[in-house]
Amino acid sequence: MTEGRLRVGVLGTGTVGQTLADRLSELGHDVRIGSRTASSDVVRTFAEAAAHGEVVVNATGGLVSVDALTLAGAEHLAGKPLLDLSNALDHSVGFPPKVLATDSESLGERIQAAFPEALVVKTLNTMTNAIMVRPRTLPGPHTNFLAGNDAEAKGVVRGLLLEFGWTDEELIDLGDLTASRGMELYLPLWLRMLGAVGNPLFNVHVVRAADS
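^ thats the sequence. predicted structure below, dont judge the formating
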């Protein structure tokens, strides 16, 4: 892993992927976006984007993430931090969508099982994309979580989060990737809050006792 400027492959050309790619580019990283088919010098295939990246970001829809990562190629994910911010949401049932995570298996774990040599780090899946990359959009402190099995990969991802504007105090490492179950199961509450608040520009803040 190089210092400073990183090569990053962002898989997914939707709003989330484009938001992440734009912010990473703004911060000086060398970004290539991946889609099923190449459409420009910037938007290449999943495989080309993943091969380009020292870090790979999974910003695809959770229901198709494993398929998209398969197209990216296990050989292009091996040994690399794979920042997974996806949620498996079934929109066919209307709003709120059904969250396809359980207390015994998460999408993050399914991705790790499908690509055992990738270094999956779950983060940023508990908020809207604008807050992911510009946390100071909100006026006060708030919380982002990380989970993953590889400490070094989590360190790389933490470094990117700090560049986005998160503070150390706002980042809570929940431990290994099994913690992504709770992170994904938070989505039913987030979706209900979205309906109650009326817009997605909110987040939670873990408030600690003064002596903690």
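The first strand starts at residue 7 and ends at 11.
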